[in-house]
Design brief:
307 residues; alpha+beta; 2,3-Dihydroxybiphenyl 1,2-Dioxygenase, domain 1; ten-stranded mixed beta sheet; 20 strands; 39% strand; VOC_core; VOC family protein; MMCE/EMCE_epimerase; Glyas_Bleomycin-R_OHBP_Dase
């Protein structure tokens, strides 16, 4: 077993890379590289690539996970009887390719060369009773435009057998449970899993496995944006562009993040989020209900199309 640090990227197939690039730039990603048959997009953070599209029939192609170091990657490869290969993408590095029990391609990378972060817009303070009123003699103005995506935060995969998939991912990558979802008492159907970083805080969930009625498949991928203003500006940009809004804006119960879900031109669900929970390895797992999973602290209820 190794302990992965985070998700790294998500990979799709689409028949028109130019159309995908236009959507992703409206969504807040930035072109890293385009070559024959492949589109690589990055965010404002130091990861060299967050979203990859290969030319082909529309579909989900792979989830990328990031190992802490090359020696971890080599240990994983040895345990699985798989080769360590060069990772042919911006940032380089090495990759080991696995297939999970549901047929999902999992690409574990290490040794990527980080890129310089991109500048973020200056933000003035929020005035309020709780936050204080430190912004004085200055008007607050936020420039219109797409969200600024910082990083790829989590992925949700639908699975055929939750317990079997949970065991597979935990045994290889060291995930720990934040919240296990029960359809009814004693009947688990999924779990929010986070990276085990010891005393270093980790997102409430890096991977969510859900035993869905639709069967195995891609559910959605989520990208962290700069702040609430940034999320709302991105919402307006995508709305003005006539894109398919799916769910939001609201605040989840589990994970607590403010969310906004959109569909790309081929129906893949991508999420903007900000202000999520962080936990360490010392924080115990919880059990939650389907109502907790689908509920919101504020915002609209989930649409029937989600998942």
């Amino acid at each position: 077993m190794i302990r992965i640090e985070d998700v790294a990227f998500v990979r799709f197939r689409a028949p028109d890379l130019a159309q995908m690039q236009t959507f992703l730039e409206e969504f807040g990603l930035v072109l890293a590289k385009i070559e024959a048959g492949r589109l690589f997009m990055r965010g404002a953070g130091t990861s060299p690539v967050l979203h990859i599209t290969e030319q082909g029939e529309p579909g989900f192609a792979a989830l990328g996970l990031r190992a802490a170091c090359l020696s971890d990657l080599e240990a994983l490869a040895k345990a699985e009887g798989l080769p360590v290969q060069p990772f042919d993408a911006p940032g380089g590095g090495s990759v080991v390719v696995l297939t999970d029990p549901n047929g999902h391609r999992i690409e574990v990378v290490a040794g990527q060369t980080p890129v310089d972060p991109l500048p973020l817009p200056a933000r003035t303070a929020w005035n309020g009773e709780i936050t204080g009123r430190t912004r004085t003699r200055q008007a607050k103005r936020v420039a219109a435009g797409p969200s600024h995506i910082i990083r790829f935060g989590h992925c949700v995969l639908n699975v055929a057998d939750f317990r079997a998939s949970e065991a597979w991912y935990k045994a290889r990558f060291g995930f720990i449970t934040s919240d296990e979802i029960e359809f009814m008492p004693g009947m688990p159907i999924g779990a929010f899993l986070r990276c085990d970083r010891g005393a270093t805080p980790s997102d409430h969930h890096t991977l969510f496995l859900l035993q869905a009625p639709s069967g195995p498949g891609f559910n959605h991928a989520a990208f962290e944006v700069a702040d609430l203003d940034d999320l709302m500006l991105g919402h307006q940009t995508l709305k003005d562009a006539g894109r398919h809004a799916e769910w939001g804006v609201g605040r989840h119960i589990l994970g607590s993040q403010v969310f906004d879900y959109w569909r790309d031109p081929w129906g893949h669900t991508l999420e903007h989020w900000t202000d999520g929970d962080l936990f360490t390895a010392d924080d115990a797992p919880n059990t939650a209900t389907l109502a907790d999973l689908l509920g919101v602290q504020w915002g609209p209820p989930p649409p029937p199309t989600l998942g």
